[in-house]
Amino acid sequence: MSKEIIIIGGGISGLSALHFLKKKYPAYNIALYEAGPRLGGVIGSDMINGYLCEWGPSGLRDRDCIASKLCEELGIENDIQPAGSDADKRYILRRGKLRRVAMSPLGLLAPGVVSLPGKLRGLLEPFAASSGKDDESVYDFARRRFGAEIADYLVQPLVTGIFAGDARDLSVRSAFPALYEMERNSGSIFRGALAKLKAKRRQSKTTASRPAKKNKPGITSLNGGIYAIIKALQAKHQTHVHTNARAARITKTAGKYLISFSDNSTAETEQVIVATPAYHAATILRKLSNDLADTLSRIQYAPIAVACLGFAKDAIKADIRGFGYLVPLNEKAKHLGAIWASSVFPDQAPGDKALFRVLLGGAGNEDVLDCSDDDLLKLAETELGAVLKIKGGPELARLYRWNRAVPQYRLGHYRLLQEIDAELARFPGLHLAGNAYTGVGVVDCIKRASAIVSNI
Ligand SMILES: Cc1cc2nc3c(=O)[nH]c(=O)nc-3n(C[C@H](O)[C@H](O)[C@H](O)COP(=O)(O)OP(=O)(O)OC[C@H]3O[C@@H](n4cnc5c(N)ncnc54)[C@H](O)[C@@H]3O)c2cc1C
Q1: Class of domain 2-43+227-299+409-454
Q2: What share of the chain is helix, strand, coil (3-state, %, to 5)?
Q3: Over the stretch 100-112, which tens digit does the pLDDT of each residue have?
């Protein structure tokens, strides 16, 4: 069977690539092959007794309105749910107590997580010297610029929250490119942030006469959960999607890519987008290029289990108006933090109930996932219960586990990407989408898919 373009993998990366391709080339013969019986990859949303349990992502940070534009094109823009007004109240657990995190550089001065000497050290950031290195761990970068306390109690938990990773292993250049660029361009994060703010103000003055954007950037979800985007993509492009179709390998014959599936069927094409996790891409591409497969295999993943726990509100003593909290490594807790899901999106639980997503595992805590589902749910319940002073057990408990959840952009990740690009240059028409390369969020995946399609 010959296709003009083939996509392998039916997560948000593959599906959004399919959508952008159909928009660009409506008449083309395009097919997406997904190994499993369902689409969405790590995205899934279950409604159970009025609680909305997300399997994976629960909120989109849609800074450039990329996800909202996709939703508009899918006709589901009215389903977008912005986070409630308390979502910018975020907490860190320190010495067993929740402490509010300042959301701006100047907010550092407010009472909260960091001690007075820690704050004063943080305020010296504009005077910190550059490392002169082409890459540095997120932790070393933060300690050099803001001091050890901010690195330990603000930056490390932030890294846990986004990557389920250890700031000492991850690359600032790849994991937080905006911070890396600010240091390079402005010599300081404070100065860089200020310059960005000024530029934004100038821009909003020059565009003052234009109507305001409909969807403000911020954390968003959708009615029915994040899976609503997958459902809409599936409904729009159903005829191009094949499930239960696992690509086993790609080879090249007579200038075309030949995709062989595990049921021994084949398909050929001149353009193929591999939108699977890097370790699957490595297996699929091994026959085509051993070097590319070896490089892809070096991208490690951290495991996560998400425990969704629902309680009656009157069983909870703590004030849960906010986004949730993260746990610094020094706290020696087993869970990584908790999102107060129904405080962020009130429709995600019945009015008199509260829903929490407790995160367990992460890089360096891989053995936590060796526990049974019951033990993990109990662990989540015990640790969350102690922090929020909850009386009694949950009335809803659901566990979602991901043994290889989030790719880790480790020190030198940018060199690994250069190696991948050099190898891809030998194979025109072969593209790699997914979260393993230039951003782990859902919006990053959509953005990468869109960039790949612009280049096809
Ligand atoms: C627990 C968790 C919480 C998260 N929270 C957030 C959040 O709040 N906000 C956010 O923005 N992001 C979040 N993320 C990250 C985000 O969800 C992912 O980065 C994104 O959904 C990845 O999409 P993808 O399509 O690249 O990969 P995947 O979702 O992994 O999809 C890849 C697909 O490829 C298929 N596949 C694999 N091998 C083959 C093969 N050989 N042939 C055919 N198909 C194959 C798989 O079956 C799968 O369906 C979270 C992730 C996890 C795990």
Answers
A1: alpha beta
A2: 40, 25, 35
A3: 987 666 666 666 7
